[in-house]
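It would be a great kindness if you could assist me with a short task in structural biology. The full record is reproduced below for your convenience:
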Amino acid sequence: MNKHSREVSIEILVGLFMFTVLIALGVFTIVLSRENLLKKAHSYEFVFSEVGGLREGDNVYLRGMNIGRVKQTSLDNSRVHVFVTLDVPIKLRSGYSIEVIDASMLGGKYLKIYEGPENAAPLGENMTILGQKPVDMIQELNKAVSGLQTMINSVEQGQGTLGKLLRDDAIYNGLAELTDDLKTIVGRVEAGEGSVGKLLKDETVYNDAAATMASLRAISGRLEAGEGALGKLLSEDAALYDDVSATMVAVRDISESISAGEGTLGKLVRDAKLYDETTSLVEDVRAAVDDLREASPITSFGSVIFGAF
């Protein structure tokens, strides 16, 4: 009896141990799978032309946050149906996008959801949600490497500007001559030759410039002090400015009066009859002066004759 009881106790302990292990495995499985049994799951179906290696269990991100995972993928003719379970509901609008993104250069994928602009119209019920074709990073990298290799080959063959720089001796010689010319110019400048050299070496130009700046400072000081006509115009004393303004107003009034035909000058400008009469009077005066000029010798001769008696 003691032996039998001992065997039964061992079997019970082993059973309890295995039961505990199974419970622990279940808990670890739930934790590692990140399933929340107490939270309501929201299921959605997305349709892709291809998914680029997206697998069941991959994460789903919305606005940079992990909100669920891929539950299942299935191939239906030329389309791939992706079923996801999300922790929160999503409201897709016009302009939305569902993309398969590379998790890293080492591999892995995740699903990125963009709900669309906030002011866009929401999608209707029972609409098929289409995902975008993923970008194959390896393929794009191969294209970039291929383009780089093509460019290197072109350079090696002397094609293009860079290729000619590496292959054509004429360009090198031209650059060498240009360098020599620059050295000559720099040497002349350092020796004080030419206008630039004199600016760097001759203190006379500097002194003249300094004197000019001093004169300008003096003039600006006089203007700020209100000296001279321009200084008075710029000064805070508004008397001269008011006088000039009054003069301009008077001149404007006179010009407006003349334009309106007021006064003698205005009538001369506007009245054609007065203008014609004035012109006729001037012509008569000119004719009288001409007659007097012609009669002047006769008058002088008569004065001499009658003066003798």
